[in-house]
Each structure stands twice: as structure tokens, then as C-alpha cells.
Amino acid sequence: MANFSTNEFKGGLKFMLDGDPCSILENELVKPGKGQAFNRVKYRNLKTGRVNERTFKSNESVEGADVTDIDLEYSYTDGEFWYFMDPVTFEQHAADANAIADCKKWLKEQYVYTVTLWNGTPLLVSPPNFVNLAVTETDPGLKGDTAGTGGKPATLETGAVVRVPLFMNVGDVLRIDTRSGEYVERAKDI
Amino acid sequence: MENNWRPTADIDTLKKRAQFLADVRVFFAQHNVLEVETPILSAAAPTAPYLTSFVTDYQPLSGSSKQHYYLQTSPEFAMKRLLAAGSGSIYQIAHVFRNGEQGRLHSPEFTMLEWYRPELSLHQLMDEINALLQQVFGFAPIIRLSYRGVFEFLFKFNVLTCSDDDIIACAKERIGGLPPELDLDRDGWLALLMSHVIEPKLADLNMPLFIYDFPASQAQLAKVIQDNAGNDVAARFELYIDGIELANGYDEVLDANELQRRFESDNQQRKTLGLDQMPMDGHLLAAMSSGLPSCTGVALGIDRLMMLAMNKIQIADVQSFSFERV
Lengths: 190, 326
What we know:
The structure holds 2 protein chains of 2 kinds. By secondary structure, chain A is mostly beta strands. Chain A has one helix spanning 97-100, and strands at residues 3-5, 14-17, 20-30, 38-45, 51-57, 61-63, 67-77, 82-85, 92-95, 112-118, 121-126, 130-138, 152-156, 161-164, 173-177, 182-186. Chain A has 3 domains: 3-63, SH3 type barrels; 67-126, CATH 2.40.50.140; 130-186, CATH 2.40.50.140. In chain A, the strands form 4 sheets. Chain A has a 5-stranded antiparallel sheet with strand order 9-8-7-10-11. In chain A, strands 14-13-12-15-16 form a 5-stranded antiparallel sheet, with no helix packed on it. Chain A has a 4-stranded antiparallel sheet with strand order 2-3-4-5, with no helix packed on it. In chain A, strand 2 and strand 3 (20-30) form a beta hairpin. Chain B has helices spanning 11-30, 76-84, 122-135, 147-155, 164-174, 186-205, 256-272, 282-291, 302-309; strands at residues 34-35, 41-42, 55-58, 67-71, 90-97, 109-117, 143-146, 209-215, 224-226, 232-241, 244-251, 296-301. In chain B, strand 3 and strand 4 form a beta hairpin. In chain B, helix 5 packs across helix 6 (186-205) and helix 7 (256-272) runs antiparallel to helix 8.
């Protein structure tokens, strides 16, 4: 993998730091009038998801990280790995629990997820911003209550629990914003 | 169609910028400071190790000999020659060039407002900057703190007398994400504390601030004097607004021999760092030998000032064409 010097730093650059692949979020040149130059970098550790800061001397260079995002269809899990398939080549990729992390509760067969590959191995699985999922468990719906205030918890087919309006019933399909984990609206179908 | 032909500042911003510059000229006319122009090209260059000059070649129409010329990093040397020749108070709005410096607050080419006042003390010069920034740019009054005072307030140690280890320990404790093997000298660690810890706190402070009486080791071209506790300090100040370094002022060194020693020690440090030696400005040294009047001077980054005055987030927003579009 190529090396990148600090003058090539920019948002989105993938590089290796302390053995982990990272992505630059912000890069700022720090240089007092006649003083030494540094690059102050805010980055995301792609393995842990954590955001951190690092200061580089301005002549340093870092090793690039072989990180790519691809869209894959979720197939199934054997409990240890979650299997995703490339819809064009039918190539299969196995993601472990670390890569699935928070995405687990949004996983549904045949849905397409963004899988971040590091050296060809799934590092992180991200759900689409919106998914449509059916309610599998909730208290019976209250007819007529369309503007209920507090709502009630509902368990969805993937296991996620979200707050929904009181009138929702088992079998209803809901549109969910995976970024906030919130119910958006009733969907017509899956 | 590609859009990179367009200015990076909008036309309304450029109109405001023009008005500000016109008002600056009125301000100096009222204070009897003469506007001057000096050459951008120079056969000599500053020796400061962390300042990189652009270099270009002069080639006579006939003949094949080339000669290096440097683009000014500030108009300081030529303006001091005018002062030595008896110009009295002078100012200049000049384009200056610093190789390699590119970022939100940096540009390899930018505009500098620089002025020299033979009759003013360093604190009187700060008064004048205060008046300029309030009257023309509408900033709040500028408060003053000594460099020692800032460090005492934030870190509870005397930065002028403490050991290097105290400074290094403080920097490592306060600054996350430093490379583990980072090796800097005392001033390098101090600069890091300034940029990573102090400047963000100054931004929170929400009022313009002069920091004055720098450590003697950071004197650059300022006189070294004693503060009221008897410590050697550089008669120098910096102006910060919103945590951004905006201006650097000196009570200027007058002794040609002293200046030559600093040039030589800079070039020595350049050698250690594996950098090119810079030709010392013999004209400046000769002018100082013939007699530079006692004077104070300050260089102020106009693009950063415009950016702050117009609430923009980067200097490209107040430059007609930023470096990426030249």
C-alpha cells in the first residue's frame, strides 16, 4: 500500500495507525508564524469506530490502508459469522460479531448493507439509513388513537425494539431510521 | 462544466474587503503613517529555520547566467532599510509568500499589513492596533496578558524559570494523540502547548488578547529585555482573536552585530535540520550599521483579519482566488 505524507492528508483518506485502519475526518495545518509545522488530525478508528485526535510532524508519512466499501446482500448467520453475498459475482463474505456490532438488530435477509472491507475482510457492516421491518410483538393496538403521545415499545422481526404509536399491531410494517433507531412511518410493504 | 474558474470569495465579500482596506488607509493617513511599496523580489532571504521562501531565477536577455531571487516572506527587511534612510513611520499592504503553508488559516500567498513606528513603545503600538481594530473592524477592546501570566494562569508554573521536563510533562498530560517518540526542543514544546491547549482556551475566552514578553529564546528579531521580575524576555507580542494568531509585533533589534549573530545561528540550525542555507541580507545589516532608529513594528495577517471581521470560516472565503484556484 502506498505511503501518504502529511501534505496529502484530507478528509476520507484511509491510513494505518498503531496497527489499525483509520479514516481522516478533519486535517488542520498548525503552524505559528516562524514555528514548526504540525498536522492536527481528527480520525475515526475503523475497527473500534472511535473518533480521536493525533498530531503529526509535517514531514511525517503514514502507510495507506487497503479499505473499500462495497454493497452486499445479507444471506444468513450460523451464530458465529454473518454471511453476505455480492449480488453480481455471488462471492460470499463472512463478517464476525465485531464487524456486525450495532448493525445486528437491523439485519434482514436479502437486504443490502454497506460492508467495509480491510485487506478483503469485513471490518464494519453499516445498515442503510432506512429499513422496513415488521412488528412481531407489541401490546394490542388502540383504534382511533392516531396521534398518541407517548407510544409503546414494539419488537421488530430483527429483534430491535423501537417506540411506535399506540395504534400499531403485530404484522404492521414500519419504516425505521437506523441512525436514530426511531420509527418514521407505517410502510406499505417490506 | 468545471466551476474552478470562479472566485472563492463572493463579490459582496470582496466589496467589503475593499472598503476595509480603504478605511485602513484612512486610519494610517490620520496617524501620519506613510504608505510605501517595496520589491517583492530579494536577492537575500530570511534565515528563520521554519520559514521557507519561494525561489525563482533571474535570467538576463543575453547571456546564460542565472541568479536566484527570493519572494518576500514579509516586507520587513526592505522597510527597515527605509527606516534607516529616515522615512519615519511607514506601513505597507503587501503580498507575501511562504512555501508549503496551505490550510484553512494558511496560504502560500497571502496579504500582510506591516507597519513601523519609530516614536512608539511596544505598549503604545498595542494601543494603536487596538484603535485600528475597534474603529475600522468593530472588534471589542483587546486585553493584555504576559506570556508568563498565561502559563501561570492555565498551568500554575513559571514558564520562564521552570525546567524543560516541567514543560514536556505538562504538554504530554494535556495534549492527547502525540506521537510517542516526539522529540522537540523547549520552544517546540511551548509552541505545541500554545497551539493545542492555549489557543482553544483563548477561543473560549471570546475577547481579543495580546500576549507579550515572550521567552528570550523566541525573540526572533525583537530586543531582549528584563521583565519586572528580572527575567530575560523578548520585547515581543502576539495578537489573538478567537484563538487565532493574527499579528506579531517587536521592539526591533537595532544592533547589526546582534542581528548577524541571529542570522548565523539560524543558518547553523538549518544545517542541522538538513535545510538550505539562506543568503543573509547584507543591505539590511549595512542599513542597521548606519543606524536604524529605535522603533516598534508589527505584521498582521490581513486575510485572517478579514475572515474574522466577516465571520467566515477559512481565509479562502475572503481571497478572490485561493491557492487551489491560482
